[in-house]
Amino acid sequence: YTPNVDGAEGTYIIFNGAYEPMTDVEDLHGISSVVNAICDAGTEEAAKSLYLDDDSAGLTIQSMSIFSKWSLVNELQFNQYVYAINDSVDKTDGHFVFDGKPATEYANTISSDALDTSTSLGCMAVKTLNIWMWTVHKLNDAIVGCRDAIQLNGPLDEAAALWEGGLLFDMAEELGPKFGHENIDGMTFVNKQIVDRLNQARDIISSTNNDCDYLDDHKLRIIVKETISYMTAVLIQNIIHSMFDDETSVDDKEKIVELMAFAVLPHISACGHESAYKTEYQKLVGDGFEASMIPDTLSLLQRHYNCLGLSCDDVGRHINASNEHPQCLDNLDIGGYTPDNSTKTNMIAKLDLDAVAIHQLMSMEKYEAAKKIYMEGHNYYDYDDEREYSFVSLHNMTQSHTIDFTTFEMYRIYDESLEGTYDVFSNTLLLDAFNKKGVFGKTSAKQRLFAVKVAIAYLVSYMSALEALYFSASVCGEEGKERATITAYDGAVALLVGSVEGRGLGGNIFEEGQMFYSIGKRICSHLRNCRGVDSEVNVELMRALSEGQRFIKQGNCAALNEEINAINSLLKVPLVQSLFYFSDPRIAENTDTDVGAYVATMAVFPILNDIDPSPAAEIMSAMDFRDSLSPTDGTKEDVVKNSLSIVFSEPKTSGMLDCELITNSNMEMCSPSKNAGEDISTPGDGEGNGDSSTPSGGDSNTLGSGDSNTSSDADEKNNLDLPRPDVKEPMPISDGLYVATNYVGDRSAIAQDVQEIKDSLDSNDFDRAKDYYLKGENSKMYDDNGMFLNKRRSIHGFSTESKDKMKGDPTYNLFVYGLSDSRGEFLGRNTTVYADSFISDLLYTKSLAATDAMVAIPIWMQVAHSLHSAYDACKLSLLTDERTMDGRLLQNRDPSLLIDEAAAYWIGDNQATGSSSEGHLLYALTEKIGVQFEKIPAGAESTINSKIIDLFNQAKNHITISRGCSTSADSHLKLKGIVDELIPLMAVPLLRNLFYYLHENDPVRSKVYAVAVLPLFSACSPSTYLELKDMLIDHDVFEVQKDYIRSRIQSLYTCLELTCDLVEAPGTSLISNAAGCGEDSDTTSLAGYRFGSEKEIITRASQVDIDMKKIEIFIENGVKHFSDYQQDLFAAAYDLYRYGQRSNGIKGSLMSMARDTNRDIVPVFGAYRRYFNADENYADTMLTNAFLKKGVFGLASVAERKRFIVFSVKYMITHMSVLQKLYSSLQSCKEDNKKEATLNLDLAAGNFIGSMEGNDDGGSFDGELIHALSKRMCVHFRTCTSLNHARINERIISLFYAGLGEIETLSCGPLERTVKEIENAMVVPLIQGLLISARDNELYYKGLANSEFYPEGYALAQTILPFIDDADESSAKDIANVMVNSFPRREENAWSNGSAKVRTALQKALSKMKGVDCSQIGSLDGN
Q: If we measure between CA atoms, which residue out of 962, 972, 727, 799 comes closest to residue 870?
């Protein structure tokens, strides 16, 4: 934006001089000529052309709608229009549709149709739809601009320009007199209200230099909200006038009313009255307007004025209205209750409109927008103390400081039940629902939608209302507190009932209320205790509330206290009744409600727990949706009835719960003489006599309906007749192909199940195949004495049990991560059971490829799991006889048994050496595909199988020699190296099969092997992997570019340390190798930097970013998929951090980089040692604490720990590692060792750039290290090149090349200067990242942003603070005070959220540093 300067004709003014813009909006104001041209166009075609193409105002009118999907994506008003107007959902991608087009373009759809109908209709459409909403958008932008302190805030001026230039001002001028409005200062009443508020907003922005503080932001939000209300009044006047207009034909009137219905009726939906909206929409849009509809439509609009922030006078009465048309009355009653101060109480009641907005936004999966409404509020702003509250939100209602009154009995009960955490309980619950975390981590969108609705009514509305009631009682009778007493009491009613219920007694007849009052109405019909449109308990409640108000006005505080206690008792009734409702099988069978049912149970649990903890716990357990098993003592309904009968029998209950009111006078439950639990359905007798065995069947038509490994009764009876294996003797697998030191014949027998399944599929006996898959048959489990345990392993179980057994496995986690969609699902189910989901689909379609999938996916992963488990057991090196695994007593998961188990699952029964026709597991699969890629002599086995069996034997021998890895602390690392080598080798036959079936044009088996192997590469190059996943997994494989696909897979080989020679055997493979395997692998460059050292060494060094990515994946999976076992995933990540990939020691791991003893060679390292109090391993210390939740991270959340870890390994570790390699290069130069100097310089480049950047100049978007940080930061600091590369990166790369040249000539003096320049340049992106973090943290603290970067800022600050401290100690202290000292709870500290302090300190320190160019950093927000 440019300033509105004083020109020859003065400054540009709007509204006949009533508004002077701060910025130059003359061009946009000129949109009036476009609108006038459309309205005056001679033909519809000419008008349409102007609408589509005339951009003389800076944009076309059509673009105001088309761009809305991006520009208005999180704006409430726009989304509420989309929510209301959409008529369907596109099932291919989930977007909303209106009239066959994207609903986000509703304005364009309607305006285009209107322009095709007539120019006059199109004229009205572009004004009331396109321009009206774009004006709202600019008003919202003005708030954002002032929050962000943009130097010139043009959006407010644009809104003013659009209101007049878009001819909406003229529309309001024409309509005003028709509604009895007189002119005020040269304009009609509504325009006057709008222009006055635009001036008020401009004055705030101007006086603060567009840097709004908290109070200014609050005022600006109120002004904008009220401005939009008056803009809505113009739309309402227009639709009313359209109905009354005598000068318009009947046909034209019907079209105009229909058009204005699109503009007005979404506001009815936004008020929470969707039934009224749908009814009116059908009348005015579906059926077509008739004059007889006017009274009802007018009455509907009038009833919603208050919701929209308007009064009857604000809209006025049309001059053609007669006595037969309803009069407008500003009635502010709440469900039949008349507050003492209706205006103030009305504001509180509107808090439920926030709940409506949240519900609608969540329905559209706009979770961040919904969370913003929850946190910041939108409809209730407090007039008494605007400095403290700004807009009062539902979030405020969850905080005890809202009224700061918690000294009442119900709060104590709830707080004690939650062990003193009730003040954060409801808020945490709701935030977790928005963020899909915690208890909601594995729930669906519909489940969370309903759960939030329940949480607001059952928890937020309930407890905040109780707080207000008891506060009112506590101050009643105190001198000077008369107003506080009645205000708090009326506020409690508003919080209980809300505005959506309407004004009349009994509330909304369509049960659309959002607050506590709505609970009784929703369940009364189910419990058969309704009274008219309301529930019995609500009738009693409203009577009691009115009585309490009467006592306040009488000054009778004693009676008030008694009445509030009676109200408290009544409020418990619908809470307890909800247990009957949600446990009813007819309700409970709807899984969309089970999470909400759980939340409702949490709301009533403290009450029941205070009476009798045991039945309360039984109910809580029965209603816990996370438990997939049915309650042990019957159905949910049985448990609830039985448990409540016990509660009602307690003497303490009589003073707390009204049993008769709760149960609709069910005296059988309420009789005090009744024995607890008598005649209540209780399948279990409590003495352990119930049948706890797992049934062996399941629904044969539903794959995955339950995995039963329990044998039949016949098996149990014949158990003594079964031959007993000698489980204590070693055994050869498949006649000596591998000699196990333990009995694993039960494992290798799974091959017989595969054979049975294959035979069944070949003979079209699909039921038999499914039965073998689901239940298993041949892999029986035995105890330590060889007794059959009546259990069998099944291939189905390998998948369905993987979530519990494999959650800590690195390989399994890569597959869960790589196959998950945005919802954490694969093929519509949780990705943790991806194998079963995929195989079930194949069996359902009767595909013969199902057998291939069973071997290549779950059995392959079971081999990997056994290998990882062997390493874990080896690492523990503890001998005990107390563990049981798969039915066999082990010595703490004996690693030798687990290696034997892996070999058994790889080879299987009846496998002959080198045979592809005998045997059915992975060994046979490898042999079968091997003949297509290798020349295998007769009687020999493939190269891959030979290597794999050799590694199995190496692993077994190492465990024997090291006595189970107990001979030294690091003996487990040898086994780790073997396992890390084995798993990539195991992938080779899967890759070969993928290439083979692509070559053979077999789309089903191509997908089988894509699912089986590609996720191994998901941490390597995200963009390449996602491209392959899209082509081969997400879509059916038909015609594909085979050579291109093969080349993309080949580009990932080095990530797994595979080679073309190993996988594809060039020259011997029978499969066409047109892609030219190995051509791309000869490249010796990283992001365009060509290194001169040995490729394998530099490639390995640059792949530190892959380990970093895997660390991030493991922790993220813990959050998304294994929320109950997050520390297990932290442990897996920590293991990778400590030992790295394919390492026989810690050398080459991230921890070894963080603890490198050669860092003393770096001159500035002394400053780091001093700053961190002689802790040379400062980075490792912080990371270890973060992994293990120690030190400062003991108080950090999982997300905070994860984010710190990710940033620290990427930037803190690599920063010093690059410096160490650079100065080592310099030292080698001084020692005349060119080779070593070049190697160290290239290693520095590898640790600066990373492997994920790829080979091309500038790198890719996949990068993870400091090079990638530079690219991300240059966008914010305007330091990118024309090719969108970071200028600082180009500088650093050129310096690396200079260093290579200087090494070649042993010019060590110039090399020293080059190294120092790289060191100084590398600080630039770190400083930029620190500034961004500080700025966004402050915005978050002020409520002006939805996300913060506290952990990232903490990591970046710790990376460069010693560097800063070395230059200026006071600057370092200032930065540490803001970015470090209060972590992880800095959002609670205003002083530690000051980005200006960080910026000033950096500027001061940089001025004292030699070689750090401030211009390279650039500017952020003009600074």
A: 972
Is residue 1080 within 8 Å of residue 1251, measured between CB atoms?
A: no
Q: Using a cut of 0.85, tell me whether the model's pTM lies above it.
A: no
Residues 6+ apart with CB under 8 A from 973: 1139, 1143, 1144, 1145, 1146
Cα 223 vs. chain centroid, distance in angstroms?
A: 33
Residue 1055 per-residue DSSP state: G
| Residue 787 near residue 725, CB atoms below 8 Å | no
Partners of residue 101 on adjacent β-strands = 98
Dump pLDDT digits (tens) for 551-583.
Answer: 999 999 999 999 999 999 999 999 999 999 999
Q: Distance of alpha carbon 1127 from its chain centroid, rounded?
A: 20
Q: What is the DSSP string of 774-816?
A: HH-SS-EEE-TTS-EEEEE--HHHHHHTHHHHSTT-HHHHHHH
User: 1396: which residues sit within 8 A by CB, 6+ positions away?
Assistant: none
DSSP label at 612?
-
As a whole number of angstroms, the distance between CA 730 and CA 741 comes to 4
Which DSSP letter does residue 335 get? T
What whole-number distance in Å separates Cα of residue 483 and Cα of residue 476? 10
CA 910 to chain centre: 49
Whether residue 787 contacts residue 805, with contact meaning beta carbons closer than 8 Å, is answered with no
Residue 1328 scores a pLDDT above 60 = yes
Judge whether 639 and 608 are in contact, CB under 8 Å.
no
HSE value, Cβ hemisphere, 13 Å, CA-based, for 651:
0
Which residue type, as a one-letter code, is found at position 378? H
Task: List pLDDT tens digits, range 437-450.
Answer: 999 999 999 999 99
Burial of residue 271 (CB within 10 Å: 0-12, 13-18, 19+) is buried
- Contacts for 944 with CB less than 8 Å, ≥ 6 apart: 926, 930, 985, 988, 989, 1062
* Residues 816 and 1121: beta-carbon distance below 8 Å: yes
Cβ distance 1405 to 1362 under 8 Å?
no
- φ/ψ of residue 788, rounded to 5: -65, 130
**Rounded to an integer, what distance in angstroms lies between the CA atom of residue 143 and that of residue 134?**
15
Which one, of 640, 610, 568, 662, lies nearest residue 414 by Cα?
Answer: 610
Q: What is the DSSP letter of 366?
A: -
Structure token pair of residue 1105: 């970013």
Instruction: Pick the closest to residue 1097 from 991, 1185, 1221 (CA basis).
Output: 1221
Q: Take residue 614 and report the two structure tokens written for it.
A: 């045991």
**What is the crossing angle of helices 1198-1207 and 1350-1367, to 10°?**
40
User: Buried b / exposed e across 511-525, counting CB within 10 Å, b at 16+?
Assistant: ebbbbbbbbbbbbbe
Counting every residue written for the chain, the total comes to: 1423
Lowest mean pLDDT among 449-463, 490-504, 1070-1084: 1070-1084
Question: Tokens 């308007």 — which residue?
Answer: 310
Write down the residue that tokens 């990540």 correspond to. Answer: 1133
CA neighbor of 1058 nearest in space, from 1107, 996, 1150, 989: 989
For residue 235 the two structure tokens come to 């739309």
Preceding amide of 1384 cis, omega within 30:
yes
Supply 1262's token pair: 């996949």
Q: Which two tokens stand for residue 1170?
A: 């001093």
* 391-392 and 380-381 strand pairing: antiparallel
- Fill in the amino acid letter for 320: N
Query: Which DSSP category does 184 fall into?
Result: B
- Distance, in Å, from the CA atom of 832 to the CA atom of 538, rounded to the nearest integer, reads 46
CB contact at 8 A, 824 and 830: yes
Can you say whether the dihedral through the CA atoms of 1335, 1406, 1087, 1243 is positive or negative? negative
Q: Which residues pair with 98 in a beta bridge?
A: 101
Residue 635 neighbours by CB distance under 10 Å: 17
Report yes or no: 1105 and 1251 within 8 Å, Cβ to Cβ. Answer: yes
